[in-house]
UniProtKB/TrEMBL annotation:
It comes from Phenylobacterium kunshanense. The gene is mobA. Transfers a GMP moiety from GTP to Mo-molybdopterin (Mo-MPT) cofactor (Moco or molybdenum cofactor) to form Mo-molybdopterin guanine dinucleotide (Mo-MGD) cofactor. Mg(2+) binds at residue 111. This is Molybdenum cofactor guanylyltransferase. GO terms for molecular function: GTP binding; metal ion binding; molybdenum cofactor guanylyltransferase activity.
Amino acid sequence: MTGPDKDGVVAGMNEDLAVVVLAGGEGRRMGGGKPLRVLDGATLLEHALARARGWSRSVAIAVREAGQAGDVDARLILDHPAIGGPAAGLASAFAFAREQGASRLLTVPCDAPRLPADLPIRLAAALTGDVGCAVAASLGRLHPTCALWRVEMAQRLPAYLEQRASLRGFAEACGMAVVDWDAGPEDDPFANVNTPEDLAALEAGHRAS
């Protein structure tokens, strides 16, 4: 896990790690179509996909419907229709990880284009003992969609969903470890895009850098 190989995949991570980009949200504050909004010449989804492919060869995009991903060249998996929110994507992501024979699953959102390159490595270091998942945090905020899960935690999800559908709550039920990041050269590496103003601010930051 020291660095990327010639294909840009982190050595030692790719064989046992599945990565799923969560892109099934409606993006109402953005006016819809969030994954396909453009930042610095590429869609938010393309930014997320490029980062994910640097971490693993087993990569998929979780969406509510295929149209949310446009014509992106990637494996699409559909959110579980009976589950609301990001937990629907997690349920489908677990199934994808099992299909790929991976023991660990990394989920990332489609709307955080600055995610740190060392995300899976630092999260993996915290996945010890009885810890079922490691969740990223930055500047005092937890980011439950940026998490590394033991795939075996999928067995606990159905019972949990009978009571709640909170991604954070499920992480806590799995024995969550929190891994903190400081602000980087471009401020918060987990800054996400929820509104047109957020997108404009990130675009301005990219131009300035």
